[in-house]
């Protein structure tokens, strides 16, 4: 069972899957979502558009996950998950964020993937406090790794400051 943090550009990693902190429409956006779509090329957008809407404009509800090929990315697959928007922590945000990690890793297991890299889901424009999100991420991933110890999971920070937040959460500090 492996869980570690890395500081890197998630779009450059040659792994089985990177996770996209997506919006419900799966049509790209800002932050890591936009970076993944730009790096993967137009085929990723076409694949996302081909996914059925479960509600008008929603291909992936908050807390759920779907998978596509990686197309132009070094990663073989992209697992798209929609994190919760932070509303103070009393609107089910921790449970929804935990579900993002669990559902993503369930998909990885179902597809026989071994290496999965997550960004800091919901910590950008969705406003989830980084320290709290990191604790949820580590707890969620560890609960799945207990059942699927073959998985190698990395929590990817885009900068050293977020890397320290992730390192503290992993060490339990």
TrEMBL record:
GO terms for molecular function: O-acetyl-ADP-ribose deacetylase activity. Gene3D superfamilies: Leucine Aminopeptidase, subunit E, domain 1 (3.40.220.10). InterPro entries: Macro_dom (IPR002589), Macro_dom-like (IPR043472). It holds the Pfam family Macro. Residues 1-173 form the Macro domain. SUPFAM superfamilies: Macro domain-like. NCBIfam families: PRK00431.1-6. This is Macro domain-containing protein. It comes from Dyella thiooxydans.
């Amino acid at each position: 069972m492996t869980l570690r943090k890395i500081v890197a550009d998630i779009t450059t990693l040659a792994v089985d899957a990177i996770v996209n902190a997506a919006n419900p429409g799966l049509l790209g956006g800002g932050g890591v979502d936009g970076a993944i779509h730009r790096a993967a090329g137009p085929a990723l957008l076409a694949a996302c558009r081909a996914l059925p809407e479960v509600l008008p404009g929603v291909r992936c509800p908050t807390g759920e996950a779907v998978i596509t090929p990686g197309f132009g990315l070094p990663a073989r697959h992209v697992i798209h998950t929609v994190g919760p928007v932070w509303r103070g922590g009393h609107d089910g945000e921790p449970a929804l964020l935990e579900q993002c990690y669990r559902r993503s890793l369930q998909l990885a297991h179902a597809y026989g993937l071994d290496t999965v890299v997550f960004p800091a889901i919901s910590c950008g424009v969705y406003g989830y406090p980084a320290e709290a999100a990191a604790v949820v991420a580590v707890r969620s991933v560890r609960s799945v790794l207990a059942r699927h110890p073959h998985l190698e999971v990395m929590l990817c920070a885009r900068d050293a400051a977020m890397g320290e937040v992730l390192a503290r959460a992993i060490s339990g500090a």
